[in-house]
Amino acid sequence: MKPILEPIHLDKQQTITGFCFAKKNFETPWHFHPQHELTYIEESVGTKFIGDYVGSYEPGELVLVRSNLPHCWKNQVQLEGQSKSVVVQWDKGIFVKVPELAPVFKMLKTASKGIIFDKNETLPLIKSFKKLPQLKGHDLYVRLLTLLVKLSNCKYETLSETSFTDDIPTEYGNRMTKIHDFVGTHFNRKIYLRELAGLVNMSEQSFSRFFSRMMGRPFFAFLNEYRINMAARMLLDTDHSISQIGFSCGYESLPFFYRQFKRIMGSSPLVYRKKFSSNFTK
After folding, report:
1. Confidence grade of residue 282 (pLDDT, cut at 50, 70, 90)
2. Which residues contact residue 225 at a Cβ distance below 8 angstroms, ignoring those fewer than 6 apart?
3. Which of 56, 155, 239, 281 has its CA 20 to 30 A from that of 105?
4. Where does the chain cross the membrane (predicted)?
5. Across the strands, what pairs with 86?
6. Opening angle at CA 119, ends 115 and 124, nearest 5
């Protein structure tokens, strides 16, 4: 799917904006904007799409995306609770390039692939980060810069294999949104390429080229990663058997499910559940 351009209304009087999001679902589709962005997840679990990356998200994550990097968070459907996040966005070029800020600009350049920070190292910074949406003027400017300097000294990992630094044509936005929504609704059954191609009014061959160009891999490789991430989440959030989870994530062959899970997650489903389930409350 192609991302849509999200207009963020900043001008000469305001170059930084921050807000707290709290609704049943994260509603923003796969999108990009010319501003840099820091997002902290407070509540809900689900899947994050950063550039060509697809993977699970959980509370406590802090992610930095550079301008023009497509991204979105899709929460799992939940009966209780909300999807909550704190977001700060700022224009490029508001900080002067001086030697003292070299680590900050290195971090922002790396964020063209999206970066996720080490939770333990950023934990002492989250309280001050959550206060940013309440600030204005020079206080907001100084506090944000101070935070970025501290973050540049924290451990972080890149997410997307591909860097996104240029504007992406906005006419592809609806296509990618439809594809993401379709996968999120139908990943639990067999999906045919002709369905996706028809959904976005393309031939199967054109769709395959389009998707591979956007996401850096064929559609079914992406779908497999999505399913495995959903399975990993279900292993931690439910008491369902591993075979139930495999079938409910769209796998018709359990041996294939086991192989793909180990290839992507680095361990068998059973080992993964034993290793990580104690870290989560159901």
Report:
1. very low
2. 54, 55, 264
3. 56
4. none
5. 20, 40
6. 115
Residue 26 and residue 37: Cα distance in Å, rounded? 16
pLDDT in tens, 220-262: 998 998 899 889 888 988 899 999 999 999 999 999 999 999 9
Q: What is residue 170's DSSP assignment?
A: G
Closest to 69 measured CA to CA, from 103, 109, 106: 109
Distances (CA, A) of 99 to 103, 146, 156, 221: 9, 15, 21, 42
Helix, strand and coil content of the chain, in percent to the nearest 5, comes to: 45, 20, 35
CA distances (Å), origin 61, targets 39, 41, 215: 8, 5, 23
Q: How far is CA 85 from the centre of its chain?
A: 12
Question: In this structure, are residues 217 and 226 in contact, taking their beta carbons and an 8 Å threshold?
Answer: no
Beta carbons within 8 Å of 198's beta carbon, 6+ residues apart: none
175-195 pLDDT, tens digit per residue, is 877 888 898 889 999 999 999
Paired residues of 20 in beta bridges: 86
For the stretch 199-217, pLDDT in tens is: 999 999 999 998 888 777 8
Identify the bridge partners of residue 4 per DSSP, sorted by sequence position.
31
Q: List the end-to-end C-alpha distance of the chain, in Å, as a whole number.
A: 32
Residue labelled with tokens 């501290």: 150
Token readout for 170 is 């906005």
Q: Over the stretch 92-140, which tens digit does the pLDDT of each residue have?
A: 889 999 999 999 999 999 999 999 999 999 999 999 999 999 999 999 9
Contact call for residues 165 and 68 (beta carbons, < 8 A):
yes
H/E stretch holding 193 reads helix 193-199
Beta-bridge partner residues of 11: 14
Structural domains present in the chain: 4-158 (2.60.120.280), 187-279 (1.10.10.60)
